[in-house]
Specification:
Layout lengths: L15 E4 L5 H11 L3 E3 L4 H8 L7 E4 L7 H15 L11 E4 L4 H15 L8 E8 L4 E8 L9 E7 L1 H9 L2 E7 L2 E2 L2 E5 L2 E4 L29 E4 L5 E7 L17 H6 L5 E5 L8 H11 L4 H16 L5 E4 L17 E2 L6 E4 L5 E6 L2 H8 L3 E7 L7 E8 L9 E8 L7 E8 H25 L1 H4 L1 H24 L6 H30 L7 H4 L4 E9 L6 E8 L6 E7 L3 E7 L4 E7 L3 E2 L4 E10 L8 E8 L13 E3 L5 E10 L7 E10 L4 E10 L1
Parallel strand pairs: 1-2, 1-3, 3-4, 5-8, 8-13, 11-12, 13-14, 16-18, 28-34
Antiparallel strand pairs: 5-6, 6-7, 9-10, 10-11, 14-15, 17-22, 18-21, 19-22, 20-21, 23-24, 24-25, 25-26, 26-34, 27-29, 29-32, 30-31, 30-33, 33-34
Helix pairs in contact: 1-4, 2-3, 7-8, 10-12, 10-13, 12-13
C-alpha cells in the first residue's frame, strides 16, 4: 500500500527513535535499548533524513533531538505530512503518529529520559488517577475533574465540575495529577490561569539578568511579574502530562524568546513526562483539550491522542493541525479496556443506540451509504442523545477506505465521539444532513431580513417603531447565534437541536413581521395604493418582455426589478387597460396570483371573488396569508371585507380561495379596483383587477 508523501504507516508496532547528533545521542540510544525501542542515528540534516526515511518504517516516530534542531522547518514539515495523510483515504490505524523528545539542555534531557524510563516501569493499576481540565476566566477558573480508581471494579470513576476562586485554583494546581489540560490564553512563556494567576514558563534557576535584549522578558531582570500578582511555575506543576490549549504553547528552536522563557520546556524541567501544545495560534476552543483528556482517560497513547486532536481540527472545518507532543509515543495514563473492538454500523435508520460503557472516547465505523455520501460532500451531521446527563458530547468524522483485503472502492466513515469528565455510556445516534439544516437556517434569516427591508420601504419603521426595533434586535441576536451553531454543527452533538430552536425563534419573528405587514397593507389597499410603488425607488430595471394580462387577456408588459444590494428580484406585469395586475417575487414562493371576479357588480349586491394562488414550494415554516380588498379610492366609506384566509402548502400547487363581499347600497357608481396580497414567510405577492360598481 502506497503511503502519502513518505508518511510511515502506524500498525501498532513500537516506535522508532530518530536520534540526532550531539552529546545527548548516547543517552537517547541507551533509553531506546532500555525501552526495547529501535533507534536510528542521523548524521547531518535531521529534518531531511526523517522525511526521506520515515516512509519505509512501520510504527510511529519518536524524534529525539537537540533543542537547536527542533526548527519550524522540521515541526511544520511533520504537521504538513500529517495533514496530507488526512486528505487520503487511509484508514485511521494506518495514519502516522509522531512525538518529540527534546528539552532545554542536556541536563534537562537526561532528567526527562530518566523519568520516562521510570514511568515505563510503573504499575498503573496501583493508585487512583486524576485527570482535570481547567478553563480560566476573569474571576477564577472552571474545573472539570475525573478520578479513576483502578482498585475498584470498573475503574470507580468519579467526575465533578465546579468553579474555583484563585486561592482554590492554586491549591488544585498544586495537587498531583496524571493529566492537566488548560484551555486559556497565552504565548510562549506566559499563560492566563484565571483570577490574576499567571502560569509561568520562566526557568526556575535562571539568574537575574543585568541587561535587556531580544528574547528576554522583564522577569529575567527583576523578581516581579508584570502580568499578574500570583505566579504558578509550570516547572513545579505536579502533573505527569500537561496540555496547554493556548497560542504558541510549543515553540522551540525558532521561538521569539530565549529558551529560558518557555512554557513546555519549563514544565519538562519538573515532574512531567509528556507535554502537548500548539505550534501556532490556538484553534478549536476547548474541544482539543476535551478530546485529549477523553482519549487519555480511555487508555489511548500520547501519540494517538495528539493525532486525534489534529484530526479533529482538520476534519471538522479545515483548520491547520498545529498540535505536537513531547514524550514517549506509546505512553498511556491508564490501560485501555479489554474489548477494544470498533462497532460497525451498516445502516442508520431513525436512530441507533450504542453503549460505550465507561469509555470517554468512542469510535464507530459507519458503512451506511447515505452517511458515506454526506461525509464525502462535507455535509454529515449527527444528533447524539446520551442516556446519562453531563457535559456535551463532541464528535468528528473522516471518510476512509476499509482495511486490506476489502475492495478499495468500498468506503466507510470513521466517527469519533468524546466527552469529559463523564463517560459516554449509552448514546442514541441519528444522521442529519448538515447542509440542508444550515441552508434552512440561512433562508429563515433571509426572510427576516427581507421583512425588515419591507418595513423600511413602507415607512413602518417609523409608524411602528417598537415592532421594528424588536425585529432588529431579534435579527442581531439570531444572526450571531445561528452562525455559532453552524460552526458547531460539524462537531457538537447538541448543535442541531439548538440550531432548530434558534430557527424556530426566527420563524416566529418572521410570522410577527409578516402579520404586521399584512395588516398594514390591508388598510392601505383601501386607498389608491399599489405595493409596487414601494419597491420601484429602490430597485433597478432588469429588462422587459411581452406578456398577456391575466384579467383581460390583452397585451401587457412584464418588467424585471432587482435590488442592487440584496439581489432580491420582482416581476411586475402592467396592462394598459387594467394597470398593475401582478407583482410577484422573482424565484420566490409564488408563481402566480390571480383574481377571478365579474367585471361589474350592482350596488347592494354580493360579489363572489376567487383568488388563485400558485406556490412553487411549501410555506417554509409559516402559513400563507391571503388578504383581498376593494379599493374605494378614498371617495367614500370602505367596503366591508372578509377575514384573511390562511393555508399551509405542503407541495407545489394551486390553492383556490373564495371570498364574498357585500357592496354597500350607497357606494357611488364608479370604477374601483379589486386587490389582493398573499404573504408567505419569505415574501409577498400582489394582484389587482378593475371592478365597476353600477
Amino acid at each position: 500500500m502506497r503511503q502519502p508523501d513518505g508518511i510511515p504507516a502506524t500498525t501498532g508496532s513500537q516506535p522508532t527513535i530518530f536520534v540526532g547528533e550531539g552529546p545527548a545521542s548516547g543517552l537517547i540510544r541507551e533509553l531506546g535499548t532500555a525501552l526495547n525501542i529501535p533507534s536510528r542515528q542521523i548524521h547531518g540534516n535531521l529534518a531531511a533524513a526523517v522525511f526521506s526515511q520515515a516512509g519505509h518504517l512501520p510504527g510511529s516516530l519518536w524524534l529525539a533531538l537537540p533543542l537547536a534542531e527542533a526548527t519550524d522547518e522540521l515541526l511544520l514539515g511533520l504537521l504538513e505530512r500529517f495533514r496530507k495523510a488526512l486528505d487520503t483515504d487511509l484508514p485511521w490505524p494506518l495514519l502516522p503518529r509522531f512525538t518529540l523528545l527534546v528539552a532545554r539542555n542536556v541536563n534537562s534531557l537526561s532528567r526527562l529520559a530518566c523519568r520516562i524510563l521510570a514511568e515505563s516501569q510503573r504499575d498503573r493499576n496501583l493508585r487512583p488517577l486524576r485527570l482535570v481540565h481547567y478553563l480560566p476566566h476573569r474571576e477564577g477558573c472552571s474545573s472539570r475533574e475525573l478520578l479513576l480508581d483502578p482498585a475498584t471494579h470498573g475503574g470507580g470513576p468519579r467526575s465533578s465540575c465546579r468553579d474555583l476562586p484563585p486561592a482554590e485554583l492554586v491549591a488544585a494546581l498544586a495537587a498531583p495529577a496524571d493529566l492537566t489540560a488548560l484551555t486559556t490564553h497565552g504565548f510562549e512563556a506566559c499563560a492566563d490561569g484565571g483570577g490574576g494567576i499567571v502560569l509561568c514558563g520562566r526557568q526556575v534557576d535562571l539568574p537575574s539578568a543585568t541587561f535587556q535584549g531580544l528574547g528576554l522578558l522583564s522577569c529575567g531582570c527583576q523578581p516581579l511579574c508584570v502580568r499578574g500578582s500570583i505566579r504558578v511555575s509550570l516547572a513545579r506543576l505536579p502533573s505527569r502530562v500537561l496540555m496547554l490549549e493556548s497560542c504558541n504553547g510549543l515553540r522551540l528552536a525558532d521561538s521569539v524568546l530565549r529558551s529560558s522563557f518557555n512554557l513546555g520546556l519549563s514544565f519538562l524541567d519538573g515532574e512531567g513526562v509528556g507535554y502537548v501544545s500548539s505550534l501556532l495560534c490556538s484553534q478549536g476552543g476547548a474541544m482539543a483539550a476535551v478530546a485529549l483528556a477523553a482519549a487519555m482517560a480511555s487508555g489511548r497513547t500520547l501519540g494517538e491522542a495528539a493525532a486525534l486532536i489534529n484530526a479533529l481540527l482538520y476534519c471538522r472545518r479545515g483548520e491547520y493541525p498545529g498540535y505536537l507532543a513531547i514524550g514517549q509515543p506509546d505512553f498511556r495514563v491508564t490501560e485501555p479496556p479489554g474489548d477494544a473492538a470498533v462497532p460497525v454500523i451498516s445502516q442508520i435508520t431513525d436512530a441507533v443506540a450504542l453503549d460505550f460503557g465507561s469509555a470517554y472516547l468512542g469510535e464507530i465505523l459507519v458503512r451506511d451509504g447515505a452517511a458515506v455520501e454526506l461525509a464525502s460532500y462535507g455535509s454529515l451531521g449527527l444528533r447524539l442523545s446520551p442516556a446519562s446527563p453531563g457535559e456535551q458530547i463532541y464528535w468528528f468524522a473522516r471518510p476512509e477506505r476499509r482495511q486490506e483485503g476489502i475492495p478499495a472502492a468500498s468506503s466507510q466513515v470513521r466517527l469519533f465521539l468524546f466527552r469529559f469528565p463523564e463517560a459516554l455510556g449509552r448514546v442514541r445516534l441519528a444522521l442529519v444532513n448538515r447542509q440542508e439544516a444550515e441552508d434552512s437556517a440561512r433562508r429563515s434569516l433571509a426572510h427576516l431580513r427581507r421583512w425588515l427591508d419591507f418595513f423600511a420601504l413602507a415607512g413602518l419603521n417609523k409608524e411602528s417603531p417598537e415592532v421594528f426595533h424588536h425585529l432588529q434586535e431579534m435579527q442581531t441576536q439570531v444572526h450571531t447565534a445561528l452562525a455559532r451553531m453552524m460552526v458547531k454543527m460539524s462537531n457538537d452533538a447538541s448543535a442541531w437541536e439548538r440550531l432548530q430552536e434558534c430557527r424556530a425563534l426566527v420563524d416566529r419573528t418572521v410570522t410577527l413581521a409578516r402579520d404586521e405587514a399584512v395588516d398594514w397593507l390591508a388598510a392601505k389597499l383601501l386607498q389608491p395604493f399599489w405595493p409596487t410603488n414601494l419597491y420601484t425607488p429602490a430597485y433597478l430595471s432588469q429588462g422587459l418582455r411581452d406578456s398577456l394580462c391575466p384579467n383581460c387577456q390583452g397585451p401587457a408588459i412584464t418588467k424585471g426589478l432587482k435590488h442592487p444590494l440584496s439581489g432580491d428580484g420582482r416581476q411586475v406585469t402592467v396592462c394598459p387597460r387594467c394597470g398593475i395586475v401582478s407583482d410577484l417575487p422573482a424565484d420566490g414562493p409564488f408563481t402566480s396570483l390571480v383574481l377571478a371576479a365579474p367585471g361589474q357588480v350592482g350596488r347592494g349586491q354580493p360579489l363572489e371573488v376567487e383568488v388563485l394562488v400558485e406556490t412553487s414550494r411549501p410555506g417554509e415554516g409559516t402559513a400563507v396569508l391571503v388578504c383581498p380588498r376593494i379599493s374605494a379610492v378614498g371617495l367614500c366609506q370602505a367596503v366591508p371585507a372578509p377575514p384573511h384566509y390562511e393555508f399551509t402548502p405542503t407541495a407545489p400547487g394551486r390553492e383556490d380561495m373564495r371570498f364574498r363581499f357585500v357592496i354597500p347600497p350607497d357606494l357611488p357608481p364608479h370604477r374601483y379596483f379589486l386587490k389582493a396580497v398573499a404573504a408567505s414567510a419569505s415574501d409577498l405577492a400582489f394582484a389587482s383587477r378593475v371592478l365597476f360598481v353600477t
